[in-house]
Amino acid sequence: MKCAGKSPNVLRVLQAACVILLSLSSNLALSAGLEKLLMPGRVIEGHADIEDDCKACHDVDSDRAIASLCISCHEDIGADRESKGGFHGRFPASQRNECVVCHTDHEGRNADIVAMNSGLFDHRWTDFILDGAHISVACGDCHDADERYRVTPLSCVGCHKKDDTHDGGLGPNCDSCHSTSAWQKAEFDHDVTGYSLTGRHAKVECNDCHRNNNFETTPRRCAACHNIDDVHAGENGNACHDCHSTTSWSGILFDHATTGFPLIDAHDDLQCKDCHRRDDFKDTFANGCAGCHRVEDDHQGRNGEQCDNCHKPTVWSDTEFDHADTAFPLVESHADLNCSACHKASTMEAVPASCGECHAIDDSHAGQLGQECESCHAQASWTESIRFDHDLSTFPLTGLHATVACGACHESNRYHDAGTDCVSCHRKDDTHKGALGDSCGNCHNSNDWAQTVFDHDTHTSFPLDGGHANLNCVACHRDASSVAADVPSTCGGCHVTDDVHVGQFGAQCDQCHSTTSFDGVESLSGQMP
To answer: Taking all residues of the chain, what is their mean pLDDT, rounded to a whole number?
Structure first.
């Protein structure tokens, strides 16, 4: 009977009508015919075998709920409602309403009385809540279209059997290792096996140790897995963990201090094979550093075998010998030198203590200045901070000489090659071209070459007075290269062009003219014959 959507009063009226009609006829055939006549439509294909038996679904003789009749056939649904499991046991409306509220019949053989809407269905009302990657899975990926959804298996292996690389060897409880977030992300706690995964073991894949999904007979000894890594070829036994750790196979735990030779500083970073050539570590070593460092001994054994007197275990090239204990402390630039810079042979052999003996190749003076280089050079820098005081030499620097660069006078570092007379440097400045000799200092001074100090009154027999006092040298000395004797000492010798007498009165112009003014003529009284 089609009952969905009908109010309870209507249902009671229809039931009463059925009772009256049935009671009017005592003939069973007539009763069945009347039921057919009152049936609102054909039932679904699944109910076709009970279509003629209205009482299978409708109990008109009592107030018994229709749901109880449904459950009498659909026992699995009744069991869910009773245990509050499955969809019909968990969904609240299923507990409150009659079955016909959701499932109506008499709609025809091909009617879908389930009307399942997968887009709106909430999987939380089932025994399998969707979480992780299951949320995005389509219904058809888990539920077979030809079977009822309730028969879909709830165990992981029910769907993931094809993904089980263990081929069932670990049982059906996949969720003990795998999670719904990602099948490949195993969360198995290896501690429960009695073999905790520490260090790099925690990052290895399962099949790195469990080959061919063998989990039961996997060995636990280090050598069983690391036999290929055992450079000792088994000679040191199977207790690899005595020296190696799970953090790093190359990270050794062995305490070398127990051998009487603790590994400190640079030795601590060495690999075993750096010293031990034999894989069983049973090498024998000579006493002292030289046993290992002979190839690094630049002294070739000349300084003995107690390398640790000078060298440190931090860095072989970092020596701790204190040169201040010798007669030659190393300071400034000397402090950074390598031993071999001075000690060409053994450090035990004597090394010259004077600068010149070591720096002969650097002596650009070619030995002219002796061996006491430190009188000018400093240890901070050979070429900088030169301390030479020229005033202590035979040629003190005065005037402009004090500001002149060394190279202006000294053409090379052979300083003694430079002359001390003026003309050695000022020959190009000598306008006299040597005619006045080499004693330039008689006229010139170091303050200014152009300012002369020559006193014509005292150095010659021709004092300069009157108009002569202010004359420039070249006014009389026309040729600077000529000697003083080449200049006439008579007035007519210079003033011939000024003689208006054309020589008639001789060359003694000073009889009438004075040095104050050539144009001024003195009185001739008493002077004429």
So the answer is: 79
Q: Tell me whether residue 381 is exposed, middle or buried, using C-beta atoms within 10 angstroms of its C-beta: 0 to 12, 13 to 18, 19 or more.
A: exposed
- Which of the given ranges, 261-270, 320-329, 367-376, has the highest pLDDT on average? 261-270
Distance CA 147, CA 113 (A): 16
444-445 and 448-452: which strand pairing?
Answer: antiparallel
Q: Residue for token digits 């007539």?
A: 30
Among 115, 144, 167, the domain-final residue is: 115
| Cβ-Cβ contacts under 8 Å for 458 (sequence gap 6 or more) | none
% of residues, the chain, pLDDT over 70? 88
Give the length of the chain. Answer: 529
In the chain, the number of structural domains is 2
Helix or strand run (H / E) with residue 445: strand 444-445
Tell me the H-state helices in 139-178: 139-142, 156-160
Do 93 and 141 share a domain, yes or no? no
Place of tokens 């019949």: 105
Helix, strand, coil fractions of the chain, as percent rounded to 5? 40, 5, 55
Specify the residue for token string 């399942």: 116
DSSP helix/strand/coil, 311: strand
Q: Report the alpha-carbon distance of residue 20 to residue 15 in Å, rounded.
A: 9
Q: How far apart are CA 415 and CA 418, in angstroms?
A: 6
Find the mean pLDDT for residues 474-499. 78
How many CB atoms lie under 10 A from the CB of residue 91? Answer: 19
- Report the pLDDT averaged over residues 375-382: 77
The two three-digit tokens of residue 304, written as one number: 């003995």
Other residues' Cβ atoms within 10 Å of the Cβ of residue 322: 10
Could you tell me if residue 108 is inside a domain? yes
The predicted-structure confidence for 413-426, as pLDDT tens digits, reads as follows 777 777 888 888 88
Could you tell me which residues are beta bridge partners of residue 53?
none
Q: Are residues 100 and 149 in the same domain?
A: no
| Alpha helix positions (H), 103-255 | 139-142, 156-160, 206-209, 222-226
Question: Would you say 47 and 2 are in contact if contact means Cβ atoms under 8 Å apart?
Answer: no
Residue 259, CA distances (Å) to 251, 315, 482 in order: 18, 22, 100
Range of 38's domain? 1-115
Q: Which residues pair with 244 in a beta bridge?
A: 252
Per-residue pLDDT at 77 exceeds 70: yes
Helix or strand (DSSP H, E) at 449? strand 448-452
Asked if pLDDT for residue 408 goes beyond 50, the answer is: yes
Q: Which two tokens stand for residue 412?
A: 């090379």
